[in-house]
Amino acid sequence: MTKDREEHQHHLKAEGLKDNIDNHDTPKVLHWLPTAFLLAVIGIGAVLTVMVPTVRQWPVGKDIVTGEAMLDYEKNNLDAKVPWREASVNLWGGLNYRLFGEARDGALIGKDGWLFTTEEYQTAKGDAQEIAGKVTYIKQVRDELEKDGAKLVVALIPAKARVYAEQLRVPVPAQNANIYQDTRQALEQAGIATPDLQTALRKPVTEDRNAGPVFLKTDTHWTPLGAEEAARALAPAVQAAASDLPPASYEVEMKPAVQRSGDLLRYVPVKTGGPAPDTVQEPEYTRTDESGGGLLGDETLAVTLVGTSYSAETKDNVWHFAGALSRALGTEVLNAAQEGKGPIVPMREYLTGQDRQDNPPQVVVWEIPERFLRVSYPLEELKENAE
Amino acid sequence: MVFSSNVFLFLFLPLFLIVYYLLPFKWRSAWILAGSYALYAWWRVDFLWLLVAITGVAYLYGLVLEKQPDGKARMWTMISAMVLNLGALAYFKYANFGVESFNAVISSLGMQPFAWAPILLPIGLSFFVFHAISYIIDVYRREEPATHNPLDFAAFIALFPHLIAGPVLKYNLLADQFRNRTHTVEKFSYGATRFMTGFAKKVLLADTIAPLVSASFAQPDPTFADAWLGAIAYTLQLYFDFSGYSDMAIGLAAMMGFKFPENFNHPYISRSITEFWRRWHMSLSGWLQQYLYISLGGNRKGEARTKFNKWLTMVLGGLWHGANWTFVLWGMWHGTILAIEAELKQKKRPAMSPWLTIPGTMILVMIGWVMFRADHVSDAFRMYAGMLGLNGFALSDTLSWQVKPSVVLTMLLATAIVYLAPWWGQRMGDVGGRLLRPAPVVVATIALMPLFVLAIMKLSAQSYTPFLYFQF
To answer: Rounded mean pLDDT of B135-148?
Structure first.
């Protein structure tokens, strides 16, 4: 043994540490079992991994020298595709849910199977500033629309955690308490009509037990009833802002009730025993009178709706806010909403887009969910357009 | 490449081990070198040259220093070696920062979040530079002969179990093992057990606690409960992450027939900060003692100078962790306490009850960890204000929604493990290598196996981050 090894052994003994790598007192089973087990696990894992086709592909167009390609490979070709990925997510999701009533990061579980997005709980020191910036931006949009004689009505959608506060297990931070009403008032004071949707949506929750929910339990979005209540609350403001709404009549047909798993169930990855999916009756809004303009159908729609997935007609949409709004107003609404981009980008794109040129509106309804007020978006572009 | 990853466990390791055990002994150093360089390059190919360069330079300096006669010239040779190595260390830590964190460059000297994940690959630089320095100084002091085996030397520096996060090793501790080591199933089993233990510690305990640490340290005005919860959580996270990583390193080394020294010895039962540094990251404190403390004069220049040497060693040891004032202050904190403890020892103060000294030491350690973890010194002081109750006492509502029952339970479990482990070790025969009570050890080892599988699955589950399609 070299001098260092001797010193090392002495040090170990002095500190009372074991050095039992070659310890023959170790029980026989421990001589071979850990080896067998570890080799079995990494052996089987290796075979299963290599059998996955993406594991044998290398990402294209990513830099190897800086490690970008390797990161990409690990994340997308390997980690996302290992055969036990789904089982792992379900196992741990199930454990956390069943033992602790926890969902994955991104959602919180309320009472009685209600799910809430953590976006409505997030806070940061710069929130007040960010929200003030949004108000300023909304005023700029109002001014921009004014150039063509269009009026702006803001449909500020209250947070689900606000409307269903009684279903929360953990309170939303106090600093979020007044965001809705404060923002509403700031906009109203600036002369921008912002009907009180919080009051409108709370009514069925607090007063009429039989009305049904205004938000979906397992989704971030509202129910057809919620969309309808909001539409009715917005109608007076839109009609007051418009000069002359071309009439249209609508009928509603309620489709049979179906089960619908909301977007928040993604955060509770259990196959059975999780929160129950929603039961929804999807409305189908159909225009019953002839569209103005006869055969050519070149009627100019007086109201344009811009917003997020709460308004955009996507395949997952069962609430049909655009239809509800059309029916409540008695005029057809042009839907320029887009999903997956927040509330700012669809408006930015609308202002410079074809829809605005082809169909100059009298009123633009801008649907903005409360939780996006504190999110930072690049807002510079509008200032350029404003010049 | 991180040990707790699919790519390491299921692609790198099986391939490495298969070829390793198929090769005859004389080719194994070369294979270790190839595998280790591949592992390093997996992080970034463009930094591999630095590893090669540090290795080559150290090897050459060894040869030169061996030949040179004692005298001024030889001293300057050694100094130039230190300048190169420490210069590389300093330069690359700064360069990385400029690129990575704009804020860090503005507000401090810039750093990488060592505290967050001590296994982050950039830290490899700190380790292999230290390995190179220890070799050069040993040769300079004529305590060890220079090696004429560049392959073994390069393989030692690059040896992947310790390349990324230590333990910090002296070349000569391993030199004879490169020439001569046994490969037995018993050794491999020992290594497998250590590896699986470390893996479980990191993934099941440390990684579970990590999000709460982040949330707590992000509180703008932490209350007493916020700050202490965060400090305790970090104290646990750091220990299980780092000691878990060391377990994996020791285990992997054993699977290749190498015996690595221990890096942790139940640090949280220390009765003083002096004792703490004999139990925490032992390989680093050993290195600092041998190469920094002794080079500064050690205890050979009188009482006052001894205390100063200890203090300075701790400050520089802090700085080694990252170029941020937080690490410097952390080092100063420990250095100052060490000096005070040395003073008290001289005055022969009576020993206090462990019921006081163990919690007392833990509080001092936790105060230090808050500084260590904070992104900036100002953030640490925000936490300290909280810890003193200056922002109120109850848990903030901005933090409480992020405190998950599963995490709290994990923290309780982790604390129990921290304080039961030394007792377990003693009962099961920690001392001198004799296993006194085999049956519980067998049961524990068998219980470890499903935990390892669970940890592998948790790794997969952790990497799955669903996002709301409509979120922005």
So the answer is: 92
User: Could you tell me which residues come within 8 angstroms of residue B404 by beta carbon, excluding any fewer than 6 positions away?
Assistant: A100, A102, B212
Helices (H), strands (E): how many in chain A? 13, 10
The answer to whether the CB of B341 falls within 8 A of the CB of B393 is: no
The whole-angstrom separation of Cα B83 and Cα B105 is: 24
Would residue B233 be called left, alpha or beta, if left means φ above 0 and alpha means ψ between -120 and 50 degrees?
alpha
- Euclidean distance between CA atoms A376 and A343, whole angstroms: 11
List, for residues B385-429, the tens digit of each pLDDT value.
999 999 999 999 999 999 999 999 999 999 999 999 998 887 776
Read off the pLDDT of residues B254-279 as tens digits, 9 standing for 90 and up: 999 999 999 999 999 999 999 999 99
Give the pLDDT band (50/70/90) at residue B108: low
Residues 6+ apart with CB under 8 A from B124: B40, B43, B51, B163, B164, B165
Residue B202 is classified by DSSP as I
* Cβ–Cβ below 8 Å for B458 and A92: yes
Tell me: pLDDT of B470 over 50. no
User: Which residues does B58 contact at the CB level (< 8 Å), separation at least 6?
Assistant: B81, B85, B131, B132, B133, B135, B136, B153, B157
Among candidate residues B342, B340, B388, B331, the one with its CA nearest the CA of residue B363: B388
| Average pLDDT of the residues in A238-250 | 93
Decide: residue A3, CB within 10 A, 0-12 exposed, 13-18 middle, 19+ buried: exposed
Closest CA to B407 of A105, A370, A321: A105
Report the distance separating Cα A64 and Cα A44, nearest Å. Answer: 29
Pairing of strands A363-369, A151-157: parallel
**Helical pair B124-140 and B48-67, crossing angle rounded to 10 deg:** 10
| Residue at B411: amino acid letter | M
Handedness of CA B133, B139, B143, B147 (dihedral sign): positive
- ∠ CA A230-A236-A241, rounded to 5°: 115
Q: How far apart are CA B22 and CA B312, in angstroms?
A: 49
Least confident residue range of A273-287, B92-106, B433-447: B92-106
Nearest to B440 by CA among A128, A30, A227: A30
How many residues belong to chain B? 472
CB B330 within 8 A of CB B317: no
- The predicted pLDDT at position A67 comes to 85
Which chain B positions have a beta carbon within 8 Å of A266's beta carbon? Answer: 466, 468
* Distance between CA atoms of residues A351 and A144, nearest Å: 8
Nearest residue in A to B250, CA atom: A21
CA-based diameter of chain B, in Å? 73
Q: Which of A310, A356, A301 is CA-nearest to residue A329?
A: A301
Give the DSSP letter of residue B158. Answer: H
Q: Which structure tokens are listed for B266?
A: 């139940």
Return the beta strands (E) in chain A as ranges. Answer: 107-109, 115-117, 151-157, 250-254, 258-260, 278-280, 283-287, 303-306, 333-335, 363-369
Q: Closest Cα to residue A226, out of A276, A314, A171, A159?
A: A159
Separation CA B260–CA A194 (nearest Å):
69
What amino acid positions of B are annotated as catalytic residues? 321
Q: Do B438 and A27 count as a contact with CB atoms less than 8 A apart?
A: yes
- Identity of the residue in B14, B459, B465 whose CB atom sits nearest the CB atom of A46: B14
pTM given for the model: 0.90
Residues 48-87 of A with CB under 8 A from B: 48-50, 55, 64-67, 70, 73-75, 78-80, 82, 84-85, 87
What 3-state DSSP class applies to B277? coil
The candidate with the shortest Cα–Cα distance to A260, out of A323, A218, A321, is A218
Out of A127, A278, A309, A326, the active site residue is: A309
